[in-house]
Amino acid sequence: MRVLMIGDVVGNGGRKAVTKLLKDLKSELEIDFVTLQGENLAGGIGLTVDNVIEMQEAGADVITTGNHVWDKREFIEHLDDPYLPVLRPLNYPSHNPGRGATDQSGPIAVVNLIGRVWVGEFDSPFAVIDDLLAGGFGQGKPIVVDFHAEATSEKAALAWHLDGRVAAVVGTHTHVPTADYKVLPDGTAFVTDLGMVGARDSILGVEVEGSLARFLSGRHQRMQPQRTGLINFNSVVIEIDSNTGLATGIERVDRQIHI
Ligand SMILES: [Fe+2]
Ligand SMILES: [Fe+2]
Please, what sign has the CA dihedral across residues 193, 44, 220, 119? Predict the structure, then answer.
């Protein structure tokens, strides 16, 4: 089985790039299942129901999120909609709306976690996924994990903690793709960060002018995604042995497209 995992899709330009590229990539790479990081789908902050439907129509099976999932207030109630395949990190306090894991959305089970180093106050992602796995989550399906975190060490630590128990741990949140992809000794594929689907000539997908002004002035500035130009499409493909549910390979799939 082959799973494509796509980094944070930023705004209109990112969504257009996914729509233009994903169908062909799925057939070219013989992809069985697609996860997409959607926390920045709506103008860079948050996501909407329309964005989710657009990404499903483009070929995404499950949409994971992160710290920006709450930014579009009108979307929060939809996190509990059983028909929208959207996750929010599982280790937010459990009274929050939404769910952080699904084994009901196809041949692959997906878990979404958020890091605690330089991100925020959450339950321990290590303990929370240990509990989830101890409860029999996955129904025997291979499990992939989107760990939305800042610190490279925290992401690597979670991957080693889960080695041999899940098919993949991939990092998101920094929007910067990393080259350290590998399969750990007991069969868990890992990469520190998937990267993004966002403008090459930008600061993490955001227009240079607004982001730079923030650093120069020390004040909050209006920032918006860079919508046009060359868009980087960053993802990885995980090869999974369906007998063991573990990974046999991981490769980067990075493309560029003019929007
Ligand atoms: Fe992001
Ligand atoms: Fe994030």
Answer: negative
